[in-house]
């Protein structure tokens, strides 16, 4: 009797273990199926978002091109300018002061009347803000300042301006040993200036506000100014790069993003030996820092799905013209001299 009970107990226990094993296998299968469904859903949503983004990109480009025709930026001519990229070797406050006072006076004296200077400087205030760009593998160290010099073609031809640009580089280096300088000839287009934005991304700001601060003073808060440099994508000619940038990226981003000002500098030639081979310098002025930090404002999205689609739109366009690992960008202060 006792042996029979023991045998029955063992059988019951084996059955319970077998049942538990089957249950665990069933649970594992269900878990794997659930994970598969989640992955398929994410992939499916991603594919749908990508397909949808291609349609949205085309629509935004059409809207942006049409919008630009009616805006001041569409009627402004591209201006040929000398552009200097500057790296600091000494204290940031000292270097900023030198550029805005001593160097600015020297350049204006050298270039004469009609000259305008637009400085973008990573001053102490900008340096305290986090850089928006990851600066993963740029072709040079992030710059500390950029100046574009306009109004040089009054009474001068191209070769004279190029020679003047080289002379300005030497002039800046002579003013102080605090700077490393490279020069370029660029074609600048002021796509959107203060008070001109007419796109739909108007949440949290007044796009009609024009520049009303004094010549030579820093663009005031709450404006947030970002500067970006990048080489063209490998395999593109200069003409292909410019076409994709000007006819797709710019009009699309004007519809999507809340920019108070947008400046494109298309780099033509370098004026100094061993200059980093950048193809573009871009200035984007945002209504406030929150418009940079908040993705729903930055991509003008009303909900998470629209945010995903708009990010796909932006990345699709951007990756056609640049390698994201090669860009360098930072927050800067804007100082305009001679424009008022």
What is the element layout, followed by pairings?
Blueprint: H1 2-69, H2 72-75, E1 79-88, H3 92-111, E2 116-121, H4 124-127, E3 145-150, H5 158-175, E4 179-192, E5 224-230, H6 238-256, E6 261-270, E7 280-286, H7 290-293, H8 295-298, H9 304-318, E8 328-337
Antiparallel strand pairs: 1-3, 1-4, 2-3, 2-8, 4-6, 5-7, 5-8, 6-7
Query: How many β strands by DSSP?
Result: 8
- H/E series, N to C? HHEHEHEHEEHEEHHHE
Radius of gyration equals 28 Å
The portion of residues assigned to helices is 40-55%
* Mean pLDDT rating: 90
Question: What is the CATH level 1 assignment?
Answer: Alpha Beta
Structure classification: alpha+beta
CATH topology annotation: Alpha-Beta Plaits
Low-pLDDT stretches: none
Q: How large is the share of residues in beta strands?
A: 15-25%
CATH architecture classification: 2-Layer Sandwich
How would you sum up the global shape? elongated
Question: What order do the strands of the largest sheet run in, or round the barrel if closed?
Answer: 1-3-2-8-5-7-6-4
Number of helices: 9
List keywords for this structure.
single chain, 340 residues, alpha+beta, Alpha-Beta Plaits, eight-stranded antiparallel beta barrel, 8 strands, 21% strand, elongated
Mind explaining what this structure looks like?
The protein is an alpha+beta fold. It has a single domain, classed as Alpha-Beta Plaits. The chain contains 9 helices and 8 strands. Strands 1-3-2-8-5-7-6-4 form an 8-stranded antiparallel barrel. Helix 3 runs antiparallel to helix 5. The termini are far apart.
Please sum up the structure shown.
With 340 residues, this protein is of the alpha+beta class.
